[in-house]
Amino acid sequence: MDDTAIGRARVSDTPELKEYYKELAALDAGALWTVANEIEPWYPQPRSVPTLWRYEELRPLVRKALPLVQADDAGRRVVMLVNPGRRELSAAVGLLYTGLQIMGPGEAMTAHRHQASALRFVIEGTGAWTVVDGQKIRVGPRDFAITPNNTWHEHGNESSDAPVIWQDGLDIPLVNALDAGFYEVLPGLYQPVESSTLRYGGHLLPYGDIWRKPYSPIFAYPWDESYAALRSFPVQSPFDGVIMEYSNPVTGGSVMPTMSAHLQLLAPGFVSQEHRHTGSVVYTAALGRGYSVVDGQRFDWQEGDIFCVPSWAWHSHANVSSEDAVLFSFNDFPVMRSLGFYREEARCD
């Protein structure tokens, strides 16, 4: 892949061209050939770098925020995880954001909605709840929940003695890159709860009800059921072990239009083959321990740790312990597929 080859921009500067470029710049214009090779690379050139955030190091600082910042003042008390190559976007990787939110005992955050889609994965604590468009959902450790874009939502912790820490995942950088961001605070601050029983719970839809919204009607996916499904599934991917996607039961597709989420089981002794794909991924160690190699960097992880795989980065996963290891992940694959950008390949030795 040679940038001096015919078909690539290979114009050499001359004094006359430099003057010409100044004339163009004065009119807020420019010559494509001066930037063509940079903006049209041979293959993806992500600015994000492979990064590991260790939970045992972050946890004390997340808890430290509890007395320092009032929930009503922060809106959401979150320690965001920022990729060294994406600081200007507050992104964890690519155009994905993630952070660790803490809610103290008895706290309730006010209701709001925004253009960005959001998801939650509970790290610790048993009192967490969220209300999404009037439906109250209770979630515990390793449960997964979604807050689709433009849905009114609020959060809280019913526990009387312990905080809740969950991981937020949002497509905020994508929304901002498209200049499409909106944010609203609910008048009255708290929304009425329709019912403590989910309208679309148990993977069932009310008879005669036609769901036409572009996201899953199931707002919460319990860990116990998901883990049991993983352990009983007979098919194993050479790249990801036993991997399953949280799905929209109406369409069979991703839970939201811009982000999808997966749960994967790495059996004891499993070492995957390497592959890469377009699209960025944020991983969270939900259970056990293991390691992943991302662009040649080995990340040893244990429960609660979070790491990222940038687009088109070679990566593999391994579990060298005698116990199950499970990774939760979310990604921007729905965007890649909708735009016809998704591509994947395996490493051929």
Describe the structure concisely for a colleague.
With 349 residues, the protein is of the alpha+beta class. The chain is 16% helix and 30% strand. The chain has a single domain (51-346), classed as Sandwich (Jelly Rolls), CATH 2.60.120.10.
Structure report:
The protein has 349 residues and is of the alpha+beta class. The protein has a single domain, classed as Sandwich (Jelly Rolls). A 6-stranded antiparallel sheet has the order 1-19-16-21-14-13. It has a 6-stranded antiparallel sheet with strand order 2-3-10-5-8-12. The chain is globular, with a radius of gyration of 22 Å. 38% of the residues are buried. The model has no long low-confidence stretch (mean pLDDT 94).
Furnish the topology, listing elements before pairings.
Elements: H1 15-26, H2 36-39, E1 51-53, H3 55-68, H4 71-74, E2 78-80, E3 97-103, E4 112-114, E5 118-124, E6 128-132, E7 135-139, E8 144-147, E9 153-157, E10 164-170, H5 172-177, E11 183-185, E12 220-221, H6 223-232, E13 242-245, E14 260-266, E15 275-277, E16 281-287, E17 289-294, E18 297-302, E19 306-309, E20 315-318, E21 325-331, H7 333-338, E22 344-346
Antiparallel strand pairs: 1-19, 2-3, 3-10, 4-11, 5-8, 5-10, 6-7, 6-9, 8-12, 13-14, 14-21, 15-22, 16-19, 16-21, 17-18, 17-20
